[in-house]
């Protein structure tokens, strides 16, 4: 990369256009960029970087604007660089974003950043490559092979940065090297390993909690008895060899080998269950024998009871003979009544139908009564005859047929009447039109003459329009100039005031800004302690939360243990209840077997086909369903007990974790710690609360100062612009006044003849005043002030406005007259055509009126004849249709009355027939009449109830007789009463002993099964946990090794630091080639794998630097170097880093290098050595530029670029 020419415009500290010819500077090989402090030496390098990358190095890139504040308002910032990169001659033109003045109005608008990238063709012409920011950046960066940070480190060699790099710790060096050398892959590997370590730890912790939970449940399930037995020497020796009497510790056994510990408990539970089962079997046999003896006694007592009950029931049946006779009599009478009941119901239905028919007939006759009263043959009081009703209906139907034939004449009459109205309307319209035509013919000749006179006057006015328009334009411009002059004078006065106030503000604002910046720095120093205070608050809050959770979990654990005790008790109660129900079923098994006996079939117990005395079930004897329900309840209680045990184990595990986090503090102590941390944080936050306000105040003052400076420059430019505009207006005003007088006289307006002299004098006075006002303003050095004449600008402006109004009035009148010419011509032609047309139309209207009057007379005659015929047919009705509708309604009423009368006679006949059949049926059934038969009817439910009662009496008699004849009952009645109380006492004692042993056996069995299941579950949990623990161990080791925190990592070196360390070793090797010469063979850099002094990070190794002193043979810290020694060392380091980065970028050749500052710390001999090294960099045509203000260098380096600082901005002299 070799720059040829750099052009800087309004950029940084350069307000104008400056140019640097790098080709002429490079001819000497070594050149100097010098100037006073703040002149803009570094700005030249910034412009070079901005042209290549569109950015400037370091913090300067975050500046609000790159435009020079001294540049004129309309001059935009721009950088043009001609450079050769990899054999391609390019020209880059860049402009940063800036606020330019608006093209219209006042204020500024944002001008976006721009770029133009061109390439020089062999023909000597520049060809555009792109104007897009991203494409230009990609092309230049790709050719250079490095980004901005790398380019600045390689080509610019900023000594201040390398001096800091030389003395920095390992972490800071790592950050710098990461910007220059990409180690993203290795850093990502470190992060990935750390994430895997965290994930593996979470996985194995979760699985370990599962193991601990199962161990707790095993301990709960075993109970104190088994745990005590396991601690005994004999029991432990049976299951493990490792746990001898001398070293036996059950707690350690449970921790080290939880699966073996659980297996030992399961073995003990197995032996206890076997012993309990044997004892239970022996007690069960004794209980069965006692129950058998009791069952035999109960069966004998039951047979004796059944025989006694049969005797009692037999005596009761003898007393129910009278009831049986009554039931049989009632049922026989009801059966006879049921045969007559259908006939009675038919009579009732016919009676109801006849009453309904009479009601309908009466209603129909009432509606037809008015028609019958008008009939002369009816007589009014005599009832209507069915035949007469039919005859009246027929008369009306015949009349309807006759009138229907006349309905066709009504549309014809309506058409005649409609035609009569239309003809009369046409006659009225034609009469009115003829009258209007005659009236218009009388006035048209006079109108035509008036229009022709106005047309002649309008043509004369059109000829005078051009002169009037010219006069109006001159008057309008004079009035506009008068207004502009007044506005410009006021603006000059306002700008002068603004200039004074802005000058005062520019003096006051810098002091206020400096004071505010100092206050902001003090506040930020206090705010630096906020992150540590916030972390302390978070830690204290976490401890307080752990204390609260610990207390809550303690209470919940106690409650869970109580709940578990209740669940255990309830499970035992459910187990006892199940045993009681099973025992009750065993006690009543004889009755349950007897219920399944079938006469003649062998007994399932004794095999006998005879069943003389089957056992009867006792009161509230349990059923198989009761036993199943009790068993389900017991299983549900067991599940609740298991859930309670799981809850206790989970809460105990969570409590252990919380106890560790709570650190043994009470809630009060944790609260006090949190309050103290919060108070400290609040104090710091309160002190730092003013930082945003002070920062905003600094920004506001800075922006205000910049704004004041910009406004001052803007006001200066506006003053000059306004004064120039006023001079131009005065000159134009002096030229227009004579033209206005000449144009106005040229219009020839008759109404201005009497005032022409007055107007001319006013115009002349206005011109004189204007000229004098302009002279006075110019004499005052451009300052706006009042006109020094007898009349002011307001009077002159008023006369100009008056002249403008007169000219516009004249132009408006002439224009209106001229615009009327086409209309008047068309109006005259139209009046002539209208006169001829009206005369022809008057003749046509007379002929049409005569024809229509003849047709009207004919229509009136035809309509009169047809109206007479229709009036005779309507009679008393309003219309023929109304008469037809009335006749149809009367015929319908008569038809309905006849039909209703006919249905009434039929219903009466059917009623008499049904009544006769019912009377005959009742007599045949033996009843006195219909009412007597209706009284004997009984409901079906009552009859069924009485019949069922008869059948029940018969069944009961048969059952009693069968029981009294049973031989077993007869034999039992002859035997003595058994002693059931003694038998029950023996049975209860045996059952109690058996129930206790059975309950113990069940508990032992359940404990054995529970422990076996938990041991299996524990084995599964351990199988899942052990691989996870191994994965965590491996991940922990790899992450610590890659992060530099492992004991195996001898140098505490991170993986990415190892890669960067190799780069640093290469840099040190390249730097020592130059440092050896510059230091006279005294110093060499050493790459140190150990952590730097003061490096607090645990993984800061691999990036250390030491200085080997050849005079003493001892290496030391770079911080011990003097200023000059540090300069040459950092310069060598910078040159070495440039070599390595250049090789990393693909070997791109840098034709020009810049060394920025630091030479003032060197003595004469050391300076000679450094210059020799820099002079050696010129090998191969490379140019080296030194940026410095040291005077000694100006005498040694003849090729110089001088940057001069002045009040209005910097300039460059080459």
Automatic annotation (TrEMBL):
- Which segments of the protein form a coiled coil according to its record? 471-498, 884-924
Q: Where is the composition biased (Basic and acidic residues)?
A: 740-754
Q: For the region Disordered, give the residue spans.
A: 609-630, 724-803
Q: Give start and end of each Rad50/SbcC-type AAA domain.
A: 5-181
Keyword Hydrolase on this protein?
A: no
Subunit structure and binding partners: Heterodimer of SbcC and SbcD.
Q: What is this protein called?
A: Nuclease SbcCD subunit C
Q: From which source organism is this entry?
A: Planomonospora parontospora
């Amino acid at each position: 990369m070799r720059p040829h020419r750099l052009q800087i415009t309004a950029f940084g500290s350069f307000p104008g256009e400056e140019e640097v010819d790098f080709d002429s500077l490079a001819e000497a090989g070594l050149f100097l960029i010098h100037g006073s402090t703040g002149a803009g030496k570094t700005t030249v390098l910034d412009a070079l970087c901005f042209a290549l990358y569109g950015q400037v190095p370091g913090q300067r890139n975050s500046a609000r604007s790159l435009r020079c504040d001294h540049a004129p308002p309309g001059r935009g910032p721009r950088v043009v660089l001609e450079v050769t990169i990899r054999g391609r001659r390019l020209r880059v033109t860049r402009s940063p974003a800036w606020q330019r003045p608006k093209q219209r109005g006042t204020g500024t608008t944002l001008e976006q950043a721009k770029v133009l990238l061109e390439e020089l063709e062999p023909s000597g012409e520049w060809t555009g490559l792109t104007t897009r920011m991203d494409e230009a950046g990609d092309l230049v960066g790709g050719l250079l092979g490095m980004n901005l940070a790398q380019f600045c480190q390689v080509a610019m060699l900023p000594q201040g940065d390398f001096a800091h790099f030389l003395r920095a710790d390992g972490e800071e060096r790592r950050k710098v090297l990461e910007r220059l050398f990409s180690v993203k892959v290795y850093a990502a590997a470190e992060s990935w390993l750390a994430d895997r370590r965290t994930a593996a730890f979470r996985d194995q912790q979760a699985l370990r909690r599962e193991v601990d939970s199962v161990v707790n449940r095993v301990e709960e399930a075993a109970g104190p008895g088994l745990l005590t037995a396991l601690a005994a020497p004999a029991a432990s020796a049976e299951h493990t060899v490792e746990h001898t009497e001398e070293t036996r510790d059950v707690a350690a056994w449970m921790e080290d080998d939880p699966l073996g510990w659980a297996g030992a408990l399961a073995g003990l539970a197995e032996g206890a269950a076997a012993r309990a089962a044997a004892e239970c079997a022996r007690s069960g046999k004794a209980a069965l024998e006692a129950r058998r003896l009791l069952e035999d006694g109960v069966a004998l007592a039951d047979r004796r009871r059944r025989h006694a009950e049969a005797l009692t029931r037999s005596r009761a049946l003898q007393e129910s003979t009278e009831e049986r006779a009554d039931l049989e009599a009632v049922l026989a009478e009801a059966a006879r009544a049921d045969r007559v009941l259908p006939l009675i119901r038919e009579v009732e239905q016919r009676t109801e139908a006849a009453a309904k028919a009479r009601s309908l007939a009466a209603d129909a006759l009432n509606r037809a009564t008015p028609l019958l009263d008008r009939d002369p043959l009816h007589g009014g009081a005599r009832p209507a005859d069915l035949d007469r009703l039919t005859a009246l209906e027929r008369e009306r139907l015949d009349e309807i047929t006759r009138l229907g034939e006349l309905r066709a004449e009504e549309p014809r009459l309506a058409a005649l009447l409609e035609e009569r109205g239309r003809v009369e309307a046409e006659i009225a319209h034609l009469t009115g039109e003829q009258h209007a035509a005659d009236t218009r013919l009388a006035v048209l000749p006079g109108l035509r003459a008036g229009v022709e006179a106005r047309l002649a006057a309008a043509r004369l006015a059109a000829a005078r329009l051009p002169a009037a328009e010219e006069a109006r334009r001159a008057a309008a411009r004079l009035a506009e100039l008068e207004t502009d002059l007044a506005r410009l004078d006021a603006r000059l006065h306002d700008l002068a005031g603004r200039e004074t106030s802005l000058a005062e503000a520019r003096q006051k604002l810098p002091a206020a800004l400096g004071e505010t910046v100092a206050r902001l720095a003090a506040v930020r120093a206090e705010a630096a302690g906020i992150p540590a205070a916030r972390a302390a608050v978070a830690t204290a809050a976490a401890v307080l939360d752990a204390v609260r959770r610990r207390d809550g979990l303690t209470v919940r654990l106690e409650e869970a243990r109580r709940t578990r005790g209740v669940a255990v008790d309830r499970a035992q109660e459910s187990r006892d209840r199940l045993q009681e129900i099973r025992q009750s079923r065993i006690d009543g098994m004889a009755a349950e077997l007897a219920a399944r006996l079938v006469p003649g079939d062998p007994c399932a117990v004794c095999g006998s086909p005879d069943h003389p005395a089957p056992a009867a079930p006792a009161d509230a004897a349990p059923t198989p369903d009761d036993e199943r329900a009790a068993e389900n309840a017991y299983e549900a209680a067991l599940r609740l007990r298991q859930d309670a045990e799981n809850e206790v184990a989970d809460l105990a595990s969570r409590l252990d974790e919380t106890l560790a986090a709570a650190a043994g503090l009470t809630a009060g102590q944790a609260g006090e710690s949190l309050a103290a941390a919060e108070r400290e944080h609040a104090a710091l936050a309160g002190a730092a609360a003013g930082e945003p306000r002070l920062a905003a105040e600094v920004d506001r003052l800075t922006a205000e100062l910049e704004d004041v400076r910009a406004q001052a420059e803007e006001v200066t430019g506006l003053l000059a612009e306004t004064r120039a505009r006023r001079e131009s207006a005065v000159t134009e005003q002096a030229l227009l006044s004579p033209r206005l007088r000449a144009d106005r006289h040229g219009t020839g307006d008759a109404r201005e003849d009497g005032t022409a002299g007055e107007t001319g004098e006013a115009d002349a006075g206005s011109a004189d005043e204007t000229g004098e006002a302009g002279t006075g303003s110019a004499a005052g050095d451009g300052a706006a002030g009042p006109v020094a004449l007898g009349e002011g600008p307001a009077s002159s402006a008023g006369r100009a406005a008056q002249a403008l109004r007169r000219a516009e009035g004249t132009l408006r009148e002439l224009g209106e007259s001229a615009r009327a010419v086409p209309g008047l011509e068309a109006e005259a032609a139209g009046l002539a055509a209208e006169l001829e047309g009206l005369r022809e139309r008057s003749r046509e209207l007379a002929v049409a009126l005569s024809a229509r009057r003849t047709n009207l007379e004919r229509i009136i005659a035809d309509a009169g004849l047809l109206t007479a015929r229709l009036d005779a047919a309507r009679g008393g009705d309003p219309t023929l249709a109304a008469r037809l509708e009335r006749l149809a309604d009367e015929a319908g009423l008569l038809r309905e009355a006849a039909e209703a009368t006919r249905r009434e006679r039929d219903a009466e006949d059917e009623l008499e027939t049904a009544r006769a059949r019912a009377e005959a049926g009742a007599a045949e059934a033996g009843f006195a009449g219909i009412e007597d038969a209706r009284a004997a009817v009984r409901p079906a439910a009552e009859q069924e109830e009485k019949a069922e009662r008869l059948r029940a009496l018969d069944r009961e008699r048969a059952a009693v007789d069968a029981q009294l004849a049973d031989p077993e009952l007869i034999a039992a009645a002859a035997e003595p009463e058994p002693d059931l109380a003694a038998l029950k006492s023996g049975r209860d004692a045996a059952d109690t002993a058996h129930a206790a042993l059975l309950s113990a056996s069940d508990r032992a069995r359940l404990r054995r099964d529970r422990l076996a299941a938990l041991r299996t579950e524990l084995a599964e949990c351990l199988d899942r946990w052990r691989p996870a623990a191994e994965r965590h161990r491996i991940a922990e080791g790899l992450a610590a090794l890659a992060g530099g925190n492992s004991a195996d990592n001898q140098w505490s070196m991170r993986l990415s630091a190892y890669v960067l360390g190799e780069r640093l070793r290469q840099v040190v090797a390249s730097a020592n080639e130059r440092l050896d010469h510059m230091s006279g063979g005294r110093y060499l850099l050493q790459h140190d794998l150990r952590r730097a002094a003061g490096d607090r990070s645990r993984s800061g190794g691999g990036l250390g630097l030491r200085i080997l002193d050849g005079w003493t043979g001892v290496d030391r810290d770079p911080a011990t170097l003097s200023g000059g020694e540090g300069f040459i060392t950092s310069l060598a380091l910078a040159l070495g880093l440039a070599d390595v980065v250049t090789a990393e970028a693909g070997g791109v050749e840098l034709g020009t290098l810049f060394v920025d500052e630091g030479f003032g710390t060197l003595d004469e001999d050391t300076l000679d050595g450094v210059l020799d090294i820099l002079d050696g960099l010129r090998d191969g045509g490379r140019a080296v530029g030194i940026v410095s203000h040291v005077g000694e260098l100006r005498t040694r380096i003849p090729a110089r670029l001088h940057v001069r600082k002045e009040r209005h901005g910097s300039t460059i002299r080459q």
